[in-house]
Amino acid sequence: MTTAQFYCQYCMASLLGKKYVLKDDNPYCVSCYDCLFSNHCEECKEPIESGSKDLCYKGHHWHEGCFNCTKCNHSLVEKPFVAKDERLLCSECYSNECSSKCFHCKKTIMPGSRKMEFKGNYWHETCFVCEHCRQPIGTKPLISKESGNYCVTCFEKEFAHYCSFCKKVITSGGITFRGQPWHKECFLCSGCRKELCEEEFMSRDDYPFCLDCYNHLHAKKCAACTKPITGLKGAKFICFQDRQWHSECFNCGKCSVSLVGEGFLTHNKEIFCRKCGSGVDTDIK
Q1: What kind and span of H or E run contains 211?
Q2: The LIM zinc-binding domain covers which part of the protein (predicted)?
């Protein structure tokens, strides 16, 4: 290109003795270049002129003076920053706004530091300790109570109950029978050995029995229907001398009228209402 041909590619003004910018090997005066090719600042929306420093991040551009934390407005030039939801945040503001807070000390868990998570909460590693011995729990087994988290050793010393059957620690759940703790899986029928934790049961001489075993081994039999009398759920029964009846079975042996709360007569092993028994050699009760 000769001196006589040295013109701005857009406005054709002479560039002799003037500043210019080359774009694709074509010269442009500064004014035309800024108008045609300069990027616009994400913050102030003004062109970033050719004489200004253009800071670029993920396809977006800023003036050097506009490249600031969107929360505290401190410059991010040559400083670490984090992009979140199309905002730029310095490390401190990001930590305060977005980082987890320690469940124990309530302070921010800084990015890059180790944190422990348990039941949806977070701790500094040095804050996640046994409530009793104050030693870090880390990834070791733990047992949680309302009062805090405990290593297994301290929990067993402070709180644990021991199963009356297997003598091992009950760490959670369990049931109580006759004032004694049991694992659910250890609370078995003394007859057939099936688990009773979800079953109705009876006891005899401080031993638990499922209903089938209790009825078979220990329950009294109704003098009328010969079925077991359990007394479960408030069921009523009648006792007379050495015999028992379900209340619904305590009826006259002749007319079947209920004798519950009524006077009755007996003859051998039969019971009768007064009317039916009047013709029989009976004892009046």
Answers
A1: helix 211-217
A2: 39-100, 161-220, 221-283
